[in-house]
Design brief:
single chain; mainly alpha; 252 residues; 0% strand
Length: 252
């Protein structure tokens, strides 16, 4: 793993930790990132193979204290302090397995743990202790719809189903704007054609010359009679006016 790139290290640790649901399980993704980040940091420190093993064991033990022993942040820091305090020229045999780190490396390990695990301790507690709702990312629903026509059953009542199902499977598709424009244009063409047809038809079709003459004579007679009647009424009014003037002159 020392010669692997980031993707190679991630794939190796994925197999070691037996993580199979990285794309759907947030917990597995966070834990894999925790171990991969620690391994890459240790590789940057030029640790030996034994130091790699001890450092990765330290990461796992700190996470074990949090997840299994339910240690608080203060207790986990105290545990780490007890382990790292034994490193040095005068270390005791109690924690001899950690003596492979010198003082500079031990301080670097503590600084890394501060910015990685301890700084986000509440988030890791939430990861292990809090229950999360499972999000349904897919569902399958089968709906049987009665045929609108030609069947033995009437259409289902609109009140008996939700609007979403009705609009998705039963409601007839709306007429598009283009279809509406086509219908309007077709209607306008039909109206213009009907008007053209009516204008092309001769209104005198079916009448003979005698019929036309008789109609014109009748109209002419009616007009002349009305004019003559109007003239006679005006002459009578003038005649009465002249007679009234003559009577006045006679009396004078």
């Amino acid at each position: 793993m020392l010669a692997e790139d980031v993707d190679g290290v991630q794939q190796k640790l994925k197999k070691i930790l037996n993580f199979k649901n990285l794309h759907t399980c947030l917990k597995e993704a966070i834990l894999l990132d925790y171990y991969v980040s620690g391994f890459l940091w240790a590789r940057g420190m030029d640790f030996s193979v034994i130091q790699y093993i001890k450092f990765m064991t330290l990461l796992d033990m700190l996470l074990h204290n949090l997840r299994t022993l339910h240690m608080s942040l203060e207790d986990n820091i105290k545990w780490l302090g007890e382990v790292m305090a034994e490193i040095g020229p005068s270390h005791s045999q109690k924690n001899e397995e950690w003596s492979i780190f010198n003082i500079r490396q031990a301080n670097a390990v503590i600084d890394y743990l501060k910015i990685s695990l301890f700084q986000h301790y509440k988030l890791y507690e939430f990861l292990f202790y809090s229950t999360r709702e499972e999000i349904v990312i897919g569902t399958k629903q089968v709906i049987e719809v009665v045929k609108p026509s030609g069947g033995l059953f009437p259409d289902p009542l609109e009140e008996g189903i939700s609007f979403d199902l009705y609009s998705a499977f039963i409601e007839p598709p709306p007429i598009l704007d283009t279809e509406m424009k086509r219908l309007d244009q077709k209607q306008v063409l039909e109206e213009s054609q009907s008007e053209a047809n009516t204008s092309d038809v001769d209104p005198l079709v079916g009448f003979t010359i005698e019929d036309i003459k008789s109609v014109l004579d009748q109209v002419t007679d009616d007009i002349l009679i009305s004019i003559q009647t109007e003239i006679n009424e005006k002459l009578q009014i003038q005649e009465e006016a002249f007679n009234a003037r003559i009577e006045k002159l006679k009396k004078a």
